[in-house]
């Protein structure tokens, strides 16, 4: 991948992170930690990889995206706004009563959202259904999803993982945002979902392990996933919750807490 493309994406990821801070601050609520950890993966997908059309969000041939960890809606909203699905000005409406950008993504209200999520564990099932449906319709569109490592505690994920391998869904690839933390503690302590690599391999998936904040590694993993036939791919991304904001990094307290004015100002400065 050319240096220029990687740098452009890194700069977009910073802009997405700034939006996450600004919008959760404006709402005085929301989930900055798990949004910041997913920003680089979301950027690579929405600004380099996925075939999507902001002018035609329902385009039948589009690639699909499912945010399994729907509480990280701010990262998805920021990407959709930057990509032109709706004006960035709307991000200020996050979580306001009646606004289309609620705390979890709503596919009926937000242009560009392919699946309503927030109840952890259901996203992969939806992604599997989409991949099967696209195959039936003879479309060559791909399905991408991002799941949390805490989300893997939901049993439904493993039923979907089994189905995806059984049906040889090679147009389906998922990222695991392996930031090690969940709502109120380390995933390892609450209920370990590890070893993630071994588990997906045992379920018949192609598995790749990367640094989820290296744009180069993310782009390479995407290319590898696309070249694999006969199996879905799981990209286990090692990430840092709160990535990019010094006082939020690896701090469980920033799972679902919004920055106040002073904290937001510091964060935005760090993200210049
Ligand atoms: C079925 C279900 N149970 C509980 C919750 C409450 N909840 C919201 S976020 C979260 C932790 C998620 O952890 P992880 O998937 O690792 O997300 P991340 O750390 O990346 O934000 C929980 C338990 C939920 N949204 N859905």
Automatic annotation (TrEMBL):
InterPro entries: THDP-binding, Transketolase_N
Domain (Transketolase N-terminal) ranges: 13-265
Annotated keywords: Thiamine pyrophosphate
Cofactor dependency: thiamine diphosphate
One Pfam family here: Transketolase_N
Family statement: Belongs to the transketolase family.
This protein's name: Transketolase
Species of origin: Heliomicrobium undosum
């Amino acid at each position: 991948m050319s240096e220029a493309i990687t740098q452009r994406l890194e700069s977009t990821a910073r802009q997405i992170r700034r939006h996450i801070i600004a919008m959760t601050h404006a709402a005085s609520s929301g989930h900055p930690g798990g949004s910041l950890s997913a920003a680089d993966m979301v950027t690579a997908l929405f600004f380099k990889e996925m075939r999507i059309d902001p002018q035609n969000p329902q385009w039948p041939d589009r690639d699909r995206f499912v945010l399994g960890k729907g509480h990280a809606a701010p990262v998805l909203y920021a990407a959709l706004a930057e990509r032109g699905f709706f004006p960035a000005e709307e991000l200020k409406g996050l979580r306001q009563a009646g606004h289309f950008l609620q705390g979890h993504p709503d596919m009926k209200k937000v242009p560009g959202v392919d699946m309503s999520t927030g109840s952890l564990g259901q996203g992969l099932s939806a992604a599997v259904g989409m991949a099967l449906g696209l195959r039936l319709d003879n479309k060559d569109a791909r399905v991408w999803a991002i799941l949390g490592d805490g989300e893997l505690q939901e049993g439904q994920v493993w039923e979907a993982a089994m189905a995806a391998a059984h049906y040889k869904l090679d147009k389906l690839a998922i990222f695991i945002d392996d930031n090690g933390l969940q709502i109120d503690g380390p995933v390892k302590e609450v209920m370990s979902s590890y070893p993630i690599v071994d588990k997906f391999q045992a379920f018949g998936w192609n598995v790749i392990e990367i640094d989820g904040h290296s744009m180069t590694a993310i782009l390479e993993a995407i290319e590898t996933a696309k070249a694999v036939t006969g199996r879905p791919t799981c990209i286990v991304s090692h990430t840092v919750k709160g990535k990019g904001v010094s006082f939020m990094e690896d701090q469980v307290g920033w799972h679902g807490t919004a920055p106040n004015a002073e904290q937001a100002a510091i964060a935005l400065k760090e993200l210049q």
